[in-house]
Design a protein that fits this description.
about 70% helix; mainly alpha
Length: about 80
């Protein structure tokens, strides 16, 4: 994927142009395609796992507050 960086740049510029022209559909389309291209690169392959870990940690932190139950303390944690 030698041209992935250039493709990402073109897609981001296209999204910005569409956003400035107030074409929300075009901006969203360019952004979604840019995200797919980024995830296809070696750098972006860890992104889905990182997002999953973040969402899981956020869910574990928010659930006790939303359910109005005290958080459980695991052994070994301060």
């Amino acid at each position: 994927m030698a041209g992935a960086g250039l493709a990402l740049l073109v897609l981001i510029v296209g999204a910005v142009i569409c956003a400035k022209a107030r074409s929300a559909g075009g901006a969203v389309l360019f952004t979604v395609i840019a995200a797919i291209v980024f995830i296809a690169t070696p750098v972006g392959q860890g992104l889905p796992g990182a997002v999953s870990t973040f969402m899981s940690a956020f869910d574990h932190a928010a659930t006790p507050a939303l359910n109005r139950t005290p958080a459980e303390h695991k052994a070994g944690n301060s």
